[in-house]
Amino acid sequence: MLVSVVNAGDEAVDGPVAIPVRASALDRVVWGNGTWTVADDGGVRLGGATAMSTNMILLRGAKGRHG
Hints:
This protein has no helices and 7 strands. The two termini are about 15 Å apart. It has a 4-stranded antiparallel β-sheet, with no helix packed on it. A 3-stranded antiparallel β-sheet has the order 1-6-3, with no helix packed on it. The protein is globular, with a radius of gyration of 12 Å. Helices cover about 0% and strands about 55% of the residues. The protein has one domain. It is mainly beta.
């Protein structure tokens, strides 16, 4: 699954950004310099986002919150 987070604002997002999917692993970072984590429970988070930034990753074994 490809996941993208875009911050189109003029200010950074300092705290973590939770993504509403579960995954078994982070496959690779496609774009951006954000710090991504996949928790033991499968939760996916981006550790903040700089102003006017885009971050994209590929997740392995991902399921949406409804699937």
